[in-house]
Amino acid sequence: MTEQDGLVRFGVAMEAPLLRAFDALVKERGGTRSEILRDLVRGEVGRSQVASGAPAVAALTVVYDHHVRDLTERLTELQHALGDKVRATMHVHLDHDNCLEVTILKGRSDELRRVAERILATRGVKQGGIELVALPEGEHGHAQDHAHGHDHEHHDHDHEHEHEHEPRAPRKPKKRASAAKKKTR
């Protein structure tokens, strides 16, 4: 093995049919063997870490019938009970009966999986799933330290930043609807 610029070269042996299939995958994705192999290894290492209760982030997707009695309230209560594990939620009305909710979670992967199973088993939830991604070891950057999903220009509280913000022009106050109506009369 030789090490160069943080990369280590090594040989890989595999059956010819598997190599042909791998090369087809490389061609389809438009990368190199090394890039695709690194992606595959990262994915497998991540799956292994998630299976062992590693720190993770998750996207929980739920489709549910909002006409089911108290379902919306139960889902909201479940999210509030999770505290800072819930990082953000997006709610979309799909049609007259169905809503889609995507919740971003952060915590131990085994705990997030249990939470997802409880939510997905709630009466009225039609379909859903969770996608877990292990957090890289030792990375505790700025974005991971905040449990709110908005950009920094709207902060009305103090906290330290580890990065600089570009200066922004002051915002013009929005006109109120009643003031706009008076001008048109």
UniProtKB/TrEMBL annotation:
<feature type="compositionally biased region" description="Basic and acidic residues">
    <location>
        <begin position="140"/>
        <end position="169"/>
    </location>
</feature>
<feature type="binding site">
    <location>
        <position position="99"/>
    </location>
    <ligand>
        <name>Ni(2+)</name>
    </ligand>
</feature>
<dbReference type="GO" id="GO:0003677">
    <property type="term" value="F:DNA binding"/>
</dbReference>
<comment type="similarity">
    <text>Belongs to the transcriptional regulatory CopG/NikR family.</text>
</comment>
<feature type="binding site">
    <location>
        <position position="93"/>
    </location>
    <ligand>
        <name>Ni(2+)</name>
    </ligand>
</feature>
<feature type="binding site">
    <location>
        <position position="91"/>
    </location>
    <ligand>
        <name>Ni(2+)</name>
    </ligand>
</feature>
<dbReference type="InterPro" id="IPR022988">
    <property type="entry name" value="Ni_resp_reg_NikR"/>
</dbReference>
<feature type="compositionally biased region" description="Basic residues">
    <location>
        <begin position="170"/>
        <end position="185"/>
    </location>
</feature>
<feature type="domain" description="Transcription factor NikR nickel binding C-terminal">
    <location>
        <begin position="57"/>
        <end position="131"/>
    </location>
</feature>
<protein>
    <recommendedName>
        <fullName>Putative nickel-responsive regulator</fullName>
    </recommendedName>
</protein>
<feature type="domain" description="Ribbon-helix-helix protein CopG">
    <location>
        <begin position="8"/>
        <end position="45"/>
    </location>
</feature>
<dbReference type="InterPro" id="IPR014864">
    <property type="entry name" value="TF_NikR_Ni-bd_C"/>
</dbReference>
<dbReference type="GO" id="GO:0003700">
    <property type="term" value="F:DNA-binding transcription factor activity"/>
</dbReference>
<keyword id="KW-0479">Metal-binding</keyword>
<keyword id="KW-0533">Nickel</keyword>
<keyword id="KW-0805">Transcription regulation</keyword>
<comment type="function">
    <text>Transcriptional regulator.</text>
</comment>
<dbReference type="InterPro" id="IPR027271">
    <property type="entry name" value="Acetolactate_synth/TF_NikR_C"/>
</dbReference>
<dbReference type="InterPro" id="IPR045865">
    <property type="entry name" value="ACT-like_dom_sf"/>
</dbReference>
<feature type="region of interest" description="Disordered">
    <location>
        <begin position="140"/>
        <end position="185"/>
    </location>
</feature>
<keyword id="KW-0238">DNA-binding</keyword>
<dbReference type="InterPro" id="IPR002145">
    <property type="entry name" value="CopG"/>
</dbReference>
<feature type="binding site">
    <location>
        <position position="80"/>
    </location>
    <ligand>
        <name>Ni(2+)</name>
    </ligand>
</feature>
<keyword id="KW-0804">Transcription</keyword>
<dbReference type="Pfam" id="PF01402">
    <property type="entry name" value="RHH_1"/>
</dbReference>
<dbReference type="Pfam" id="PF08753">
    <property type="entry name" value="NikR_C"/>
</dbReference>
<dbReference type="InterPro" id="IPR050192">
    <property type="entry name" value="CopG/NikR_regulator"/>
</dbReference>
<dbReference type="GO" id="GO:0016151">
    <property type="term" value="F:nickel cation binding"/>
</dbReference>
<dbReference type="InterPro" id="IPR013321">
    <property type="entry name" value="Arc_rbn_hlx_hlx"/>
</dbReference>
<dbReference type="GO" id="GO:0010045">
    <property type="term" value="P:response to nickel cation"/>
</dbReference>
